[in-house]
Structures are given as structure tokens and as C-alpha cells.
Write a structure and sequence with these properties.
The chain is mainly β. 9% of the residues lie in helices and 40% in strands. A hairpin with an 8-residue loop joins strand 4 and strand 5.
Length: 327
């Protein structure tokens, strides 16, 4: 049984199914509502409309009387409102237990699924929760503490139909993988998850999950706090006048350092941004910067391989896209 424990808990995208009535928003997006679950010696609190590592232990493995450390907690260290969700991986009985936070209200995984670990960790195999909008991004506020070996990941996918039979993927967080890794931060920062649509259809299901410790290595200080998830839609393209207000220099860059400026339209250079490589993988994300940086906001791609990258600035007037070249 112990050998199966870690595999189940790594199922960050697969495990959620069924759920909320919301069709275009994230249920309990601010983690304000919590409920007591479990029974007997194994009772725990989880955010309503979400599943946690404790739910895996109780619902899938039936560990009702097992004394294990709590991985999920309601914290008053919130961005706004009265509470946020905090997940922390643990080691129990010699087993590494990653911390997960999944949108949904029940699991589809059974012990027989353990014979095929690849299917368990595939986010596209869950039914998800009902969702019928086509937003361009998901944003949320978070803190992540840990060592250099620690990872906090968010995974998202929109689909149409049952992906195990006739359904298909409509959108993910990237052209290669639906997973994005969040940088460490001791203060609340906004993380923007850009959606890449692979089909013109309207989705009917949303899969969304957070995981800490999924890389099988984590420190005792690893901890992720999440609050206020919001879907939004940004115009596909900014007008030529808006796009033309942005200056990027030097470009190409010999050391990977670029400067962004837009004195006439400060909101362009200081907008939330993402940078992707030639495979569509997000290599850098930044929240909106102060307007004082409109005359020279630094963008640091040092250490990245030479090549062409794509910069996306999500301004209030639309998306500004610019190619960056690292020599």
C-alpha cells in the first residue's frame, strides 16, 4: 500500500471530477468556504469544491484510521478576504507525500489504475468541472517558500467531451505541457496562466490543480499559499499604435538582458508579461510593474539558450507581442 501512496498523490490533474455549478468562474476561488470531511480518527478540513491530499488518503486509499500529518490548511495569511489555502508536502512512515489542491468534488482513480502510472498523471483524463467560457488567461495570487530543489506547479486544461472516449482538448497552458512552474516568493505575487487554444470549440470541462513536491524532491520548508483565482479575457491583438509605443533594446541581446520602454503609453512596458521559447514553453513570467519602470523595465533572460523568444505583454488595450533574440 505504501508504495502506491506517492503515485496516487502525484495525480494532480487526473483526480478531480464532477462538481460545481459555475460555468465561467472558479468555484470557491478565494478559499473562503471550508468544510470538515472524513470520519472517525481521520477528520480534516478542505476548501469547498476542492480536493486535497487528505481526500486522496481518505477517499481512494480508505485510510480512515491512519495518523498522517496534515498537508492542507486554512490560513489567515491571505491576499484578500478572510482566508487562503496553504499546501505543504510531508514525509510520513518513510513515504514522501506531495501536497495537492485539485478542483472538483470526487475522484475517479482506483487502486487498479496504479498499474499504469502514466495514465494517472495525465491531466487530460479527468472529467473536470463544468465550464463553458473561452478566457485567455487565469490569474491568481500566491506565495511559495522552499529550497532551490523545490517546485510548485499549476496545471490547467479545458476540454470538450469525455477525453477517455470521443472528447478532445480545447486549451492548455502551453503548446508542450499544461503545467507551469511558479517562481519562489515570500510575499504575495500575481501569477498569470496564459491559455493556448488548440480548437475553436467551446469547452465544457475545466481541469485545474496545484502540486508541491511532484518532482519527488522537496525540503521541509516547501509550502504554497494560493488565493483569489480569476479568469479573464484579454484582446487578441493591440492596435498598431499601442504596439508601436513599445521599445525593446538591445534586441538582439548578447547577454540576455533586455529593456522595455513606453513613455507615451506607460501601461504597455509595465503590463504583466510572459516569455516563451521556440517550443511554446513559458520561460519567464512577471506581474505588472510600477509605472515608474515605463522608461526602462528590465527583462532578464540570462542563462537561457541562444535563440528566438516570444514576449507577450497583456496590456489593458490588448496583447502586444514582440520577438526577442538572445545571441
Amino acid at each position: 500500500m505504501k508504495n502506491h501512496l506517492r503515485t496516487l498523490l502525484c495525480a494532480a490533474g487526473l483526480l478531480c471530477a464532477g462538481g460545481a455549478n459555475a460555468q465561467s468562474t472558479v468555484p470557491n476561488a478565494g478559499f473562503e468556504t471550508w468544510q470538515s470531511r472524513g470520519s472517525g480518527l481521520y477528520r480534516f478540513d478542505s476548501p469547498q469544491s476542492w480536493l486535497t491530499s487528505e481526500d486522496v488518503l481518505y477517499q481512494v486509499l480508505g485510510l480512515g484510521a491512519l495518523a498522517v500529518p496534515r498537508l492542507t490548511s486554512k490560513t489567515s495569511d491571505k491576499y484578500t478576504g478572510s482566508s487562503a489555502a496553504q499546501i505543504t508536502p510531508k514525509v510520513a512512515s518513510g513515504q514522501s507525500i506531495p501536497a495537492i489542491l485539485l478542483l472538483g468534488d470526487r475522484f475517479r482513480v482506483s487502486l487498479t489504475d496504479l498499474s499504469n502510472p502514466a495514465s494517472i498523471t495525465d491531466i487530460t483524463r479527468s472529467r473536470g468541472v463544468p465550464f463553458t467560457a473561452r478566457p485567455t488567461q487565469l490569474s491568481f495570487w500566491y506565495k511559495f517558500a522552499g529550497e532551490s530543489t523545490d517546485q510548485a506547479q499549476v496545471a490547467l486544461a479545458l476540454s470538450n467531451g469525455n477525453l477517455k472516449t470521443t472528447g478532445f482538448l480545447v486549451a492548455t497552458g502551453g503548446s508542450v505541457s499544461p503545467n507551469l512552474i511558479m517562481p519562489g516568493t515570500t510575499t504575495y505575487k500575481q501569477f498569470t496562466f496564459p491559455l493556448v487554444y488548440t480548437a475553436a470549440d467551446t469547452p465544457d470541462s475545466l481541469r485545474l490543480g496545484f502540486i508541491v513536491g511532484g518532482n519527488q524532491v522537496f525540503s521541509s520548508s516547501a509550502s504554497l499559499t494560493v488565493d483569489e483565482l480569476v479568469f479573464s479575457t484579454v484582446a487578441a491583438n493591440a492596435s498598431p499604435a499601442v504596439a508601436g509605443a513599445l521599445s525593446v533594446y538591445p534586441n538582439p541581446s548578447s547577454d540576455g538582458i533586455f529593456s522595455l520602454a513606453s513613455l507615451q503609453k506607460p501601461g504597455v512596458a509595465t503590463a504583466a508579461l510572459s516569455v516563451t521559447d521556440a517550443l511554446g514553453k513559458v520561460v519567464l513570467q512577471q506581474a505588472a510593474a510600477p509605472t515608474s519602470e515605463a522608461n526602462g523595465r528590465q527583462l532578464d533572460l540570462r542563462g537561457k539558450p541562444a535563440g528566438v523568444y516570444l514576449l507577450r505583454l497583456n496590456t489593458a488595450e490588448g496583447v502586444v507581442v514582440r520577438k526577442l533574440q538572445v545571441q
